Each structure stands twice: as structure tokens, then as C-alpha cells.
Amino acid sequence: MSSPAAQHPLRHAVSAADWHAALLQIDPAPPLLQAWQWGDFKARHGWQPRRMLWDGNARAAAGAQLLQRSARTFGLNAVIQYVPHGPLLDWRNTALAQTVLADLRTAGKQANAIFIKIDPALEVTTPGADASTTAAADLLARSGWRLSASQIQFRNTVMLDLQQPLEKLLAAFKPKTRYNIRLAQRHGVQVQPATAQQLPALYELYKQTAQRDGFPIRPQAYYLDLWSSFAQAGLAQPMIAEYGAQPIAGAVVFAYAQQAVYMHGMSASTHRDKMPNYLLQWHALQWAHARGCTSYDMWGAPDNSDPADPMAGVWRFKSGFNGRVVHTPGAWDLVLRPAAYTLYEFALPRLLQFLRRTNSGAAPG
Questions:
Q1: Distance CA 231, CA 320 (A)
Q2: Domain 157-325: top CATH class
Q3: Distance, CA of 126 to CA of 36 (rounded, Å)
Q4: Mean pLDDT of 312-321
Q5: For the purposes of burial, counting CB atoms within 10 Å of the CB of 87, is it exposed (0-12), middle (13-18) or buried (19 or more)?
Q6: Which residues pair with 334 in a beta bridge?
Q7: For a Cys staple, 153 with which of 8, 48, 276, 361, CB 3.0–4.6 Å?
Q8: What is the reported pTM?
Q9: Is the dihedral of CA 173, 174, 175, 181 positive or negative?
Q10: Cα maximum dimension of the chain
Q11: Distance in angstroms (rounded) separating the CA atoms of residues 155 and 301
């Protein structure tokens, strides 16, 4: 009898087209953070991507875009590996899952990594997804992985169904949200695609938003690279809202395969009474619907509706669009150098700061 590894041999994607075609064989709506272009972008900011594929029955059965970063911290040569929103596979296929986890462990050991972090794109609240989530959690625990205290991406999000007419989608919004969209229109707020020359203005609005709401952001060059490179690849649409020819708000929406992602939203501290972000969101949804996306990820929701939660204000905005709240199991770590990992855990705030500077999902949009 052949071994699980022999049944699902590991190979590495040779091109963006090879990787994209393989991901679509695994999942018709693969996550944005597993896109080849995301790995290329992260490579320009200190990470090394590896696109790992496991074949089975003459097609791709699993995939993991593994990002690796090296840094010298606390006197250690620290190598960290991370699979954002992956790996992608059917976790109910135990033999396949065991092979993927074993090969990830091998990759970590070969790099002398302190730990490997994964955050599979699984749901914990829908009946059809529960079996995969339970299987994944059970196998990860048995294989030595632990639920991480350091979550990089949001554990929860809000999803909107775009497989319906726009009129029906609009009618499902909460009345106050529909009112605010109309209010922005009555005030004369104009929404249009942002040009490359307007991207610095979007960053200035994002910086104002971060200062006002108290979340960390990265340097301007990081966002300008992200927004412009994905827009040029046809995978993102920056938008800007103006009032009297003055930029007052913006949004950047990404689209990969069948899923759109609202990753970054920003607004000035003035003219917020004009409700530009509601109109921006409606335009973004129309853009995603027109390009054939079947779902729209609003990129982040709090663990609960506590008014004291730092995301309470963001949640009030997002909840008005009446989407489905999706809960995921979050990130898991495989510890390969326990002493070094313990040191990192002891100095967790600094580790979090390091990771947030170098990964996309930590700063709310």
C-alpha cells in the first residue's frame, strides 16, 4: 500500500497561471491572500513566498502559499513562516491533511523556523462547514499544533451574497444604511475610481482614520505599492469620494476569483455628516457585482457586539449592510523551537507589532 505522501506528492507551482489554475481546482473561490500576486507583493516587503501544491487523481488536491521572513530579534536569528488564509484542502480527507501538515513541518525544520502559523479559511457556524472545521481542529491538535494567542488576520468577518440582483441586495440593507446612502447622494457626494495620482490622497485619509480610531498602519510606500500593483493587475479598484472637489473618503476593494474583499476604508475628520463611506460601499458592491463576484468580504468583525470593543464603531457601519457573520477557528501555530517560541510569547507585544507591520490583515480597513 502506498504512503499518504506518495498518494499526494508535493510540487511547487512554476508560474502564476499554474498556481491560479491549481487553486481553482481546490476551491472555486480561493482567498485573496493565497493569490500569486499577494506573494509577489509580500516579496517586495521582506517575505519569501513558496507556492506548494499537492496533487491527487491528476489534479491539484491542496495548496499553501507559504511566506517566510527572517529577522534578528532579542538576539535570535528568527525565521517565521506563515500561510495566510490557508492551507487550502478538504480537511475531511485525513490522508491528504496529514501529508500537507507533514510537508509544512519539514519546510519549517529545513528553514530552522521558530514556528509556522496557519489560519485555514474555514467556518465554524454553518452545518456544511462544521465537519471540515472539526476535522481540521482535531487533526491539528493531534499533530502538535496549538491555537495561537497571536492572531494576525481577523477571526471573524461579514459576508454579503452577490448572487442576487442589486435591487434585492439594496433592499436587504438596514433602513438607516439605505437612508445614509441616499443622504450622501442628496449632499452631492461624488464617488469615482481613484487615479494613480490620487493614491497619496487616499493614504492621507487612511492616516487620519488610523489616528482617529487608534489602529496601526504602515508607511505610505507599502499601501501605494499594494493598491497600485493590484489595480494594474485588474485585481483591485481604489475609489475616492469628493465633496466640492475635496477628497473626503476612500475605499480600496480587491477581487480574486469569485470573491471581492473590502480591505481598506478611510475618511477625513471633516464632512463625516455627509455619510460618504456608505455611498462608497454601495459603489464598491456594484463594482464587485459587475465583475461577476459571488461574495463580498467586509474584512473583519468583532468577537461580540460589546460597545466597548475597539471595533464597535466599525461593526455598526458594517452590520448595516445586513451580511452574514462568519466565524473561523483562527490561527494555529506549530512550534519548532520551543525555547525561542517561549521567549517570543513572553515578549508578545513586540512580536505582534512586528507581525502587524508586515502582514495585511492586522490594521482594520
A1: 28
A2: alpha beta
A3: 29
A4: 87
A5: buried
A6: 116, 145
A7: 361
A8: 0.90
A9: negative
A10: 72
A11: 8
Secondary element (H or E) of residue 228: helix 220-232
Please state the rounded mean pLDDT for residues 318-333.
Answer: 93
How does pLDDT run across 288-313, given as a tens digit for each residue?
Answer: 999 999 999 999 887 776 776 666 77
Residue 98: closest CA among 10, 26, 211, 220? 10
**Helix ranges, 86-174 (H):** 94-110, 127-142, 166-172
Grid coordinates of 42: 509580500
pLDDT value for 300:
85
Give tens-digit pLDDT for 55-107.
998 899 999 999 999 977 656 678 999 999 999 999 999 999 999 999 999 99
Task: Determine how many CB atoms are found less than 10 A away from the CB of residue 18.
Answer: 16
CATH class of domain segment(s) 4-153+329-362: alpha beta
**Side chain identity at 192, as an amino acid letter?**
Q
Residue pointed to by grid coordinates 449592510: 321
- What average pLDDT score do residues 196-210 get? 96
C-alpha cell at 98: 496529514
Q: Is the pLDDT of residue 344 over 80?
A: no
Domain boundaries, the chain: 4-153+329-362, 157-325
pLDDT of residue 350: 61
* Three-class HEC string of 37-76: HHHHHHHCCCCEEEEEEEEECCEEEEEEEEEEEEEEECCE
Q: Which of 127-141, 178-192, 213-227 has the lowest mean pLDDT?
A: 127-141
pLDDT tens, position by position, 220-249: 999 999 999 999 999 999 999 999 999 999
Rounded to the nearest integer, the mean pLDDT of the chain is 90
Q: How many CA atoms lie within 13 A of 68 on its CB side?
A: 19
DSSP per position, 151-219: --S-SEEEEEE-SS-HHHHHHHS-HHHHHHHHHHHHTT-EEEEPPGGGHHHHHHHHHHHHHHHT-----
Mean pLDDT over 308-336 rounds to 88
Instruction: Look at residue 357 in the predicted model and tell me its pLDDT.
Output: 56
CB 230, CB 254: distance < 8 Å? yes
Q: Which residues lie below 8 Å from residue 29, measured CB to CB, with a gap of 6+?
A: 257, 258, 259, 294, 295
